[in-house]
Write a structure and sequence with these properties.
The chain is of the alpha/beta class and 447 residues long. It has 2 domains: 290 residues, UDP-N-acetylmuramoyl-L-alanine:D-glutamate ligase; 140 residues, Protein-Tyrosine Phosphatase, Chain A (Alpha-Beta Complex). It is 40% helix and 17% strand. An 8-stranded mixed sheet has the order 4-3-2-5-1-6-7-8, sandwiched between helices. Strand 9 and strand 10 form a beta hairpin.
């Protein structure tokens, strides 16, 4: 018998805060690769994922940008688009969004009560990510979304989201990250990402690494899945803020405005547009909706510029997670283009398991002053350990401030109105910083 919401009295959590605390107890940073628990629990739920039309996205960098672009364009065209992403910046509800609106606190509480009862009934102990993935699939099915856009959390083959058969699989740029789980070279990592490819399901891929392209193409041939490559089947030209796109069908769309900052968004947006071309029969979108939607895309904490009041003037911020080598390289490119000759104050903190010294060194060279901080205690590298890994030149322009709040205050005191404060190194750090800065902006008196 299928486990249903009506079958149980699911009031274990009386408040949203209690539901959040239970989710946190599932060990936010615990990683367990494998699909056995997901399949067991989805069977109990009556396979809600089978009622969803899905777009499944894997890759090292760009998943969120592609996902939010797809969700925004589909919503602009009048469809109900669910988007499940990770990690969140400030609040867990950010992971579950329909047409730009996160799940409500009450709906989240109800879903968590339901899932807690399910876990007790089934006698299983899921991870944090398994629980959030189940919540997304269950909630999207209950809300009867037109399309569910699912972003993998780690890898693809054994990721908890890999329980769907999507309409299209999208694979973004592949680079080194989470090497202890996915492998130490591009070939091994690409094979894990390729695990989301299903027989006969078309694949959109950025294809910007030869080794990765060879692996993805091999999987597609074996599974009878047609592969569409950027630069071979669809084309993009442009720079930060502008895109000219030539699609799979040959349709040319010049001078598209991109709301997301960074030259790498030319690639990510092109992947989203190619995906929509493959779905045009089911989800037709007018050109005017594409143009209007692209101008509305907003993805907080990823190349996000903010200007906040400070004393009698203001301070400029750039928030960018940049949590791996490719992300840091993209940030350096953006800074070189947008901040030519300007002084940069860098607030930096990365997770202890990240190995990106080479890319980080380039970023540190661009900074006039570096403040090392720590977003959370369990997995973040300590400011002192970061300082000890620096060379002498980097140390001379650096200081350690453990508190993110105090680090931001120090950066604002160092900077002038024309200079940029860049917060980077970890999405957890960016989330903490953004929460503080938005609160400060909301409580600042109007001029």
């Amino acid at each position: 018998m299928t486990f249903t919401l009506e079958a149980k009295n699911n009031e274990h959590f009386s408040t949203y805060q209690e539901a959040c605390a239970y989710l946190e107890s599932l060990q936010f940073f615990r990683i367990k690769l494998g699909l056995a628990t997901m399949h067991q629990l989805l069977q109990e739920l009556g396979q809600p994922q089978q009622r969803l039309r899905c777009i499944h996205i894997a890759g090292t960098n760009g998943k969120g940008s592609v996902g939010i672009t797809l969700a925004t364009l589909l919503a602009q065209a009048g469809y109900r688009a669910g988007f499940y992403s990770s990690p969140h910046l400030c609040e867990v509800r950010e992971r579950f969004v329909i047409n730009g609106t996160p799940i409500s606190e009450e709906a989240f509480r109800r879903q968590m009560n339901f899932l807690h009862a399910l876990f007790v009934h089934a006698g299983v102990h899921p991870t944090y990510f398994e629980c959030t993935t189940l919540l997304a699939l269950s909630w999207f099915a209950q809300e009867d979304v037109d399309v569910a856009i699912l972003e993998t959390g780690l890898g693809g083959r054994l990721d908890a989201t890999n329980v769907v058969t999507p309409m299209v699989a999208v694979i973004t740029d592949i680079s080194r990250d989470h090497e202890q789980y996915l492998g130490t070279d591009i070939t091994a990592i690409a094979a894990e990402k390729a695990g989301i490819i299903k027989p006969g399901v078309p694949v959109i891929f950025s294809g910007r690494t030869a080794a990765g392209t060879e692996v993805i193409a091999s999987f597609c041939r074996r599974l009878g899945s047609r592969l569409f490559l950027l630069g071979r089947d669809f084309f993009a030209q442009g720079e930060d803020g502008c895109l000219s796109y030539t699609g799979i069908t040959g349709t040319h769309r010049p001078n598209l405005s991109l709301a997301l900052a960074g030259a790498h968004q030319v690639v990510n947006t092109s992947l989203a547009l190619a995906t929509l071309e493959l779905l045009a029969t089911s989800f037709p979108i007018k050109t005017e909706d594409v143009r209007a939607g692209l101008a509305k895309v907003h993805w907080p904490g990823r190349m996000e510029y903010l200007t906040l009041p400070y004393q009698n003037t203001h301070r400029r911020f750039l928030l960018e997670g940049a949590h791996n080598e490719a992300g840091v390289q993209a940030l350096c490119t953006n800074l070189a283009v947008r901040e030519t000759g300007g002084r940069i104050i860098l607030v930096w903190g990365n997770m202890a398991d990240k190995q990106m010294e080479q890319a980080r060194r380039k970023l540190f060279t661009l900074a006039a002053h570096i403040i090392l901080t720590q977003a959370e205690l369990e997995r973040s590298a300590t400011p002192q350990s970061l300082w000890e890994s620096m060379n002498m030149e980097e140390r001379q322009k650096s200081r350690c401030i453990a508190s993110v709040h105090e680090a931001l205050l120090a950066a604002m005191a160092l900077a002038t109105a024309d200079e940029l404060i860049c917060v980077a190194g970890s999405l957890h750090l960016v989330g903490r910083a953004r929460h503080y800065l938005i609160q400060k902006q909301e409580t600042s008196p109007s001029p």
